[in-house]
Amino acid sequence: MPTAKFFALRGIKESLVNGYAVIGLSEAIALRDELYQLAVSASRQLESFVLDSLCWVIAVITKRAWIDSCEEQRAAFTRTLCEDIMIHSTPCIGLITATYLMDEISGGSKCSEFNLPWEFHYMCKASFEKTHLLFLFEAALKVMHQQLQRSLTRQGTSPSGGHTIAYERRSALHAAERALNWAFTSPDANKLADSSFGGSMGAAATDGANDGAHGRARAGDLDDGDDYEAPGQAILDSDLQNRTPLFPSEWQTLLLDSSVLELFFSIYEATVSDQMHAYFSPGSSHIALQCMIQISGLRGKGIFAQTATKSTDSLRAEYANTIMQNQLRVLRHVCTMDFTNEASEDLVVATTQMIRRFIEAQLDEQPVTMVAGERLHTLALLAAGVPETFDYFGEVSKFICLLLRAASGILRSEDHHDIDEEFGDMDNYFVMQAFDELASAWTSIINEIREWGYLAEASLEGPAKTGISAGAGSGGAAGDADAQMDNHKVLKSFTQFLTSTAYMIRSEYIQLRMLACEDSAKESSSRNDAQSIDHGLLAKDYIVYEDQLQFFALLARLDIRTSMDRLYESLCSRCSALQSEFSRLENAMSNGPGADASDETTQRSIDILHEQIHWIVLLMGYTLADSGNSERVLIPASVSESSAVNHDIEHDYVVQGIMSILKTLQFELMSPSSILAAYGSPLLVETLFWTLRRIVPVYFMVDMSDYRQMSPHIVSAFGTPADGGNGVALIESILEFVRRAFDLWTGEEDVLQMCVDMLLAFSRRSSIARPITQSIKFSSLMLYFTSNIARFPVSIHGSMVEALASLCSHSSSEDHERAFLELKSLILMNIAQVVRDPAFGQHRDKSQIIGRLLDGLDMLDGIVASANFTNMHMIFDLLFEIQPFFEQMLSIYPRDQEVPCKIVQIVESAARYCDISSLPDNEHMVRFSLNVRSMLQKYQQSQEGTMSARPDTDMDTLSRITTLTLAISHLVRNEMGFAPNELERSISREMSDSFGETEVYGLYCIHTTATDTQLTTPTVMRVYMQLLSELVQFRLPSLIRWLPASTWQAAMSMLLAGIDNDIYDVEQRTYETINKLGAYIKVVGVQGISPEVQQIFQQSIQLFLSKLFSALLFSPFDSQLVEPAGTALVMLGLIDSEYMRNCFQNILQGKSASIAERLTAIYSNFNHGLESCEAVQLFLRSSGPIPEPIDSISLRQPLFEFLVSARAVIRVK
Fold first, then answer.
1. Nearest-5° angle of CA 893, CA 898, CA 904?
2. Sign of the C-alpha dihedral, residues 785, 788, 791, 797?
3. Phi, psi of 616 (to 5 degrees)
4. Quick one: which of 808, 843, 680 has its CA closest to 748?
5. pLDDT tens, position by position, 79-92
6. What is the 3-state secondary structure (H, E, C) of 689-732?
7. CA 756/CA 750 separation, integer angstroms
8. Is 783 within 8 Å of 798 (Cβ atoms)?
9. Do 310 and 282 touch, CB atoms closer than 8 A?
10. By CB count within 10 A, which of 97, 195, 396, 906 is most buried?
11. CA–CA separation, 86 vs 141, rounded Å?
12. How far is CA 1073 from the centre of its chain?
C-alpha cells in the first residue's frame, strides 16, 4: 500500500538519524545507494508522494553521512546525480534528489532535524557549496537547455507518451532556482558570528523594508505548502534575503556566460507558450521569473573578479549588456499587455523587481577604471559598454508612464469598483505597487547623479586636476570608452534624458491624481455616514503618499520651470473653476428660498475641485521645499536658479506659485457670515496651512549669507524690508488667515492644530518670529486667542500657548514680559482661581471643575515646552508659584488619575525643556529638586490603594507610568549635564545629594505605583530600562545609599527580564547596566551595604549568570548584542567564578564524552584567554568609588572564539 510505503520510509529516516552512530558510515552509504537504485528502477510504479518521500530520505542520509564521507565519495554521488539529471528520464530521480539535498544542506526551515551541532550543518554547507552545488546547477542548466530546444522545435505538435514532465514536482528549473537563491557561507568573522547567533534582529527587520512588491512572496519560497522562513528560524539564514547572493569567483564562468543568462529569459517565454505543460511543469513560468530577478542583480567582487583577459569593468559591462538586452525584450512585451487584467500581475511585478534589482546592483558597484583623474561612474560605464543603455532606460520610463496610464484607465472604467472592494484603494492594486518599485529605482538614479553633481562642483572649487590615468582595472569595454566618453558628458546626457522623461511621468501622475479625486468624490457621495467617519480617520495624504510625493518632487526639480508652470496653471484653472461654482451657487441662493441651490451636481463639482486643489498644493509643497525640523532647510538650488533666470517676477512661477497658495487660502477663508462658508473645505484649508508651514520658513526672510546666489524675485517677494522685500506684509496676511481660520473652522480640530503647528514652525526661525511679534496683527491675534480660548477645542490649548510663548520670546524684553504675564494670568485663572475657591473642596469632582483644571494644566505644559534662554527664568518662577496648587490637587484627587497624571506630565516637560543650570543659585536648584520630590511623594500617596483597581494593560495607565519614568529620566540627564557621574561634578554636595535623593525616590515611586506586568510591557520597559541604566551610570552611590531593599529586588527582576529580551534597546541597556553595576560590586565591594541588599545582589548575579549563559550558548541571539552581553557574562563570572563554573558543568550533563571533552577544552581556552587579556587585568587592578567596566572591544576576540566554538558544538538541529 502506498501509505504503508510512505510511513516505512519515514521510519527508515528516523532510525538512521537517531541510530547513525550504531549503523556507521559504510552501512548508511550502502542503504542510500540501494534506495537510490530502487527509486530509479521503480520510479514509474511508485506514487508521486511515495517517490518524493523516497528521494527525500536519500537526501537526508546523504547529508548525515556527508562530513564522515571522503571527498571522493561525495563527488561520486554528485556525479551520479548529475548523470541522472543529464539523462533526464521522467520522472528524473536525480533532479528530485538534488533539490531535496539542496534543501537539507542549505540549513533553512526545510532542513530536517538531525539533533547535531550547528558546526555539522555549517561544515556540510561549506563543503557542498564549494564544488558540488555548482556541478548540480550546471547539470540543471543543460537539462533546461534541452527542454528549451525541444519546446522550440516541436511547437504546434502534440507530445508523445502519456507520462510528461507535467507530473514532476521538482524540475531542472526548480533546482536552478534553489541554487540561485543559495546563501553562501563566508570566511568573514562577522558573518560567521551572524550565522552562529542567527543574524541581527535589527537587520532582519530592515532588510524586508527594501524588498519589492510590498510583501509578496520572496524569491525562493515557491513551493506550495512550504513554511515561510521567518527571521531567526533558520540556522543558516541569508544576511540579505532580498538581494541576489554574493556568488564566489568559481561561478563566474557559468553565470556570466551570456548564453546562460539568456537561457532563463528564453525559458520563461517557452513556459508561457507551453500551455499543455508538455515540456515544462506547472508553475515553471513563476519560477523562471524568480530566476530572472536573481540573475538581474549579480554583484560583488567574486563574481566579477578580473581574469587574465578581461578586467572587472569589462565583465560588468558585458553582463549589463546581456541583462539589459533581455530585459528590453521583456519590457517591450510587457508594455503591450493589458494591465487591467490580473493575469498580467506576475509578469508586471516581476519585471519591476528585476529592473529595480539590476539598477540598484549596478549603482552599488564602483568601477575601477580611472578617466581624467577620476573614477569612472557606473552610468558612464554602462553608456560606454552597452549601446542600448538609453533605449533601456527609455523603455523603463515608458513602462512607468504606462503603469500610471493603466491606473488612470481603471479609474475611468467600471472595474475600479471591484478593485476598491478587493484592495480598498487603487494604490493597493498591483499596478501602483509596480509603479512604487520603479519609482524607487528611478529615485536611486536621480540621487546618484545629483550626488555626483555636488561632488563635481566641490572638486571644481579645489585644485584643478589634469591628465588622464588608467587604473589597474582599466581595459576592455570600459577602457575603450576613455576616448569616447567621460563622466561629465555621460551624466550630462543622463540628466537631459531624465529631464525629458520626467515631464511625461509627472503629467501621468498628475492626471492619475486628478482622476482619483473625481473617483473619491463619487464614492463619498454614496458612502454612508459611518463610512465617512472612518474615511476621515485615515492618515493624512502627505504622510500616506510621502514616497510618491517625494518622487514627484525629485522629477519636478529636474525641470523646475516647466513643472511649476504646469502646477501653477493647474492650480489657477481649478481655483477659477471653483470661484465660478461658488458664483453660480451664490446666484442660485439669491433667487430666493425656493431655488435648489445645493443640488447634488454642484456639490460634487465643488468637492472634486477642492480635492484636486488639495493635491496640486501638496505637489507644490513637496516640490518647493524639503521637510526638516532639526536643521535649517534651504531653498533647493534648482528652484533658486530657475527663479533667478526669469526676466520678470510675473513669469517666475516659483514666486507666483507661492502667491497662488496664499490667494487660494484667502479665498477659502471667506467670512463666517457668508452664506457660502459652509461649502468650504477644511481638508483644503489644513493642506494650505501645512504647505505654508513647510514653505514659509524656507522662502521668507531668507538670510543672504546662506546662499552664494539668490533669486532677486524671491528676495523681492518674500525678503526682509532691509533687502527690499515684501515678506513682512505677507506674514501679516498669514496671521490674518490664522484668525479667520479660527473664526470659520472653530470646530475643526485638525485645521486649528495645523495653524498652531505652523506658528510653532515660524517661532523656530528668529528672522520670521521677530517681525511677527513686532506686528500689530500679532498683538490682536494674541488678544483674540486669549479672550476666546474657551471657544476652541481643549486639545489645542496647550500647543496654542506654546506657540504664543515661543513667538513672544523673540519680542523686546518689555513686550515679552507683558505677553508672558498675559499667558500666565490665563493659566492661573484656570488653576489658582479654581483651587482658591472656598467651594473647591465641595465641587472638586464636578466635570466642569476638573475640565478647567486640566485645561489650565495643559496650557501650563505648553508654556513649559516653549522654554528657551529668554523665558526660562519666568517659567521657573511660574512653576514655583504654582507648586502649592500642585500639592493641593495631588492631595485632593487620590482616586482621579487625570489630574495627578497631568501634573506629572508637567514635571516631565520641565525636566525635559527647562535647563536646571540656568537657575540663579544653589538655593533655587535645591528648591526645584525638593518641589519635584514633594510632588512625587504626593503622587505616590494618591495612588495607594488604587493600583489593583486599574487594568494592567489599560493604555491610559501605561501612559501614566511611561510619563512618570520619562520625568525621572529627563531629570537625571538635565541636572547631570556633561558630568560622567555624580562624584565628578563641580557643585555643592548638598545640591548633588538633593537631586540624587529625588531621583532615587522617583525609581521607588515607579515601583510602588505600577505592577510588574505593567513595567514589562514593551513601551514601559523601554523607558524604564533607559532610566535604570542612567541611574546606575550617573547615580550609583545614591542608589546604594537610598534605594530600599524591596526596590532593589524589583529592579533586579527587571534586569533579569531584560536579558534575552525581544526588544533590542531594552536588551542593550540591560547589559550596559549589568556591566556598570557589576564593576562597582567587583571593585568597590558590598561591605558597606545592608546585608539584605547584599543577599539580593548575590542571588541576582547567579540568576543573571544562569540566564545569560543559557541565552548566549543556546538561543538565537542578535549578533550586534553579543559583545555587550558577553562582556556582562565575563563581568558576572569575575564576581562569582564558582557559580559560572557550575553553570558550565550543568551544560556538560547528558552530553557524550567526546562532546564534553571538546566543550571543556573550549571553556579552558576561554579562561586562559581572559587571564591573558590586558583589558581584564587592567580592570582587576582598577580602583575608585565608581570604576569603569571592562573594555568590551578588547574582549571581542576571546569572547567570540568561545561563544562561536561552544555554540557550534552545543546548538543542535
1. 90
2. positive
3. -65, -40
4. 680
5. 999 998 888 777 78
6. HHHHHHHHHHHCCCCHHHCCCCCHHHHHHHCCHHHCCCHHHHHH
7. 10
8. no
9. no
10. 97
11. 10
12. 27
pLDDT tens digits, residue range 763-819? Answer: 999 999 999 999 999 999 999 999 898 899 999 999 999 999 999 999 999 999 999
Contact 149, 259 (CB under 8 A): no
| Lookup result for grid cell 494593560 | 953
Q: Where does residue 966 rank: exposed (0-12), middle (13-18), buried (19+ CB within 10 A)?
A: buried
Q: What is the CB-side half-sphere exposure of residue 549 using CA atoms within 13 A?
A: 22
Give the residue among 711, 570, 695, 708 at the shortest CA–CA distance from 639: 711
Residue that is written with C-alpha cell 519560497 in the block: 221
Sequence-distant (6+) residues with CB within 8 A of 534 are none
Select from 1095, 1090, 1075, 1117 the least CA-distant residue to 1206.
1117
Q: How many CA atoms lie within 13 Å of 826's alpha carbon, on the beta-carbon side?
A: 29
Q: How confident is the model at residue 596 (pLDDT cuts 50, 70, 90)?
A: low
User: What is the chain's length?
Assistant: 1213
Q: DSSP character for 374?
A: E
- pLDDT digits over 876-901, tens only? 999 999 999 999 999 888 655 689 99
Q: Band the pLDDT of 215: cuts 50, 70, 90.
A: very low
- What's the rounded Cα separation, in Å, for the pair 614 and 603? 16
User: Cα(897)–Cα(899) distance, rounded to whole angstroms?
Assistant: 6
Instruction: Work out whether strand 370-371 and strand 374-375 pair parallel, antiparallel, or are unpaired.
Output: antiparallel
Q: Tell me the C-alpha distance between 605 and 609, whole Å.
A: 6
Residue 278 CB contacts under 8 Å (≥ 6 apart), including other chains? 151, 154, 158, 159, 164, 165, 166
Q: What is the largest CA-CA distance in the chain?
A: 104
Q: What is the pLDDT of residues 135-168, one digit of tens each?
A: 999 999 998 898 888 888 765 554 444 334 433 4
Nearest 10 degrees: Cα torsion 523, 529, 533, 534: -60
Q: Which residue has the higher pLDDT, 717 or 1212?
A: 717
pTM for the model: 0.87
List the helix and strand counts (H, then E) for the chain.
55, 2
Give Cβ neighbours of residue 1138 (< 8 Å, ≥ 6 apart).
none
User: What gap in Å lies between CA 937 and CA 932, rounded to an integer?
Assistant: 9
Residue-wise pLDDT tens digits, 529-541: 434 333 444 578 9
Please name the residues in contact with 1065: beta carbons below 8 A apart, sequence gap of 6 or more: 1022, 1025, 1026
Q: Give the DSSP H/E element, type plus range, for residue 370.
A: strand 370-371
In degrees and rounded to multiples of 5, residue 1087 shows phi and psi of -65, -35
Q: Is the pLDDT of residue 279 over 80?
A: no
User: What pLDDT is attached to residue 536?
Assistant: 42
Nearest 5°: phi and psi at 117?
A: -60, 160
pLDDT attached to residue 950: 52
What are the respective helix, strand and coil percentages of the chain, to the nearest 5? 75, 0, 25
The answer to whether the CB of 1108 falls within 8 A of the CB of 1125 is yes
Band of pLDDT at residue 358, cut at 50, 70 and 90: very high
Burial of 1152 (0-12, 13-18, 19+ CB in 10 A): exposed
Consecutive H or E run containing 118? helix 118-127
Cell of 368: 575601477
Cα–Cα dist 1077/747, whole Å = 54
CA 466 to chain centroid, in Å, comes to: 43
Q: CA angle at residue 369 from 363 to 370, to 5 degrees? A: 110
Question: Among the residues of 310-344, which ranges form H helices?
Answer: 312-334
589 vs 1037: which has the higher pLDDT: 1037
Type and span of the H or E element at 784: helix 776-788
Q: Dig out the grid coordinates for 601 from the structure.
A: 451636481
Considering only 18-22, 422-426, 1053-1057, which range has the smallest mean pLDDT? 422-426
